[in-house]
Amino acid sequence: TAPARRGLPPLLEGVLQDRELARRIGALHRKVEGRDASPLELQERLGEILGRFVVRHARWAEAPSPRLDGPVLRARALLEERFAEALSLEDLAREAGCSPFRLVRAFRETWGMPPHAWQLQLRVRRGQALLRGGWTAAGAAAELGFADQSHFSRVFRRIVGMPPGVYARQVRT
């Protein structure tokens, strides 16, 4: 039985062979280098990498249950209130009153996605409303806290399935 689960558990091996973990680390590195990911997304990805590392390569076999209804709701409320800001995982965890790792796990379990994905969904929904109201994609991107119009367009296309300009033309006709 593990002690009070403080700190890192002992590793099973000194040298690791984990292609998926290496792939995720590489993807995180590319996100950092690309400079268009939010601090929240980067911190979540790092937390997922560390979580995978501990689960797959340490002695603790069972993680504590991540169910945290109140804290998850508080974090979601903060995201909805400050959706255009570059919130950090620490900001959300502090508001929720739990650890960042536990918050991400519970948030994903409750809402089916991590906090940064929820925040992007909020931004895109608000972007759709702005575009319907006659805003340009560039204006919407700036209003919604995206790094630039191309970042907004990439995220918008991924979530909505079409670029903001096409969406705006379709809803106006």
What does this protein structure show overall?
The protein has 173 residues and is an all-alpha fold. Helix content is 66%, strand content 0%. The protein is globular and about 60 Å long. The termini are far apart. The model is unreliable at 61-66 (pLDDT under 50).
Instruction: Find the count of extended strands (DSSP E, 2+ residues).
Output: 0
Helix content: 55-70%
Order of helices and strands: HHHHHHHHH
Q: Sketch the major β-sheet.
A: none
Any low-confidence stretches, pLDDT <50, length ≥5? Answer: 61-66
How far is the first residue's CA from the last residue's CA? 64 Å
Average predicted local confidence, pLDDT? 85
Silhouette: globular
| Rg, nearest Å | 19 Å
Q: State which percent range the strand residues make up.
A: under 5%
Name a few traits of the molecule.
173 residues; mainly alpha; 66% helix
Break the fold down into its secondary structure elements and pairings.
Layout: H1 19-34, H2 39-57, H3 69-81, H4 89-96, H5 100-111, H6 115-132, H7 137-144, H8 149-160, H9 164-172
Helix pairs in contact: 1-2, 3-4, 3-5, 3-6, 6-7, 6-8, 6-9, 7-8
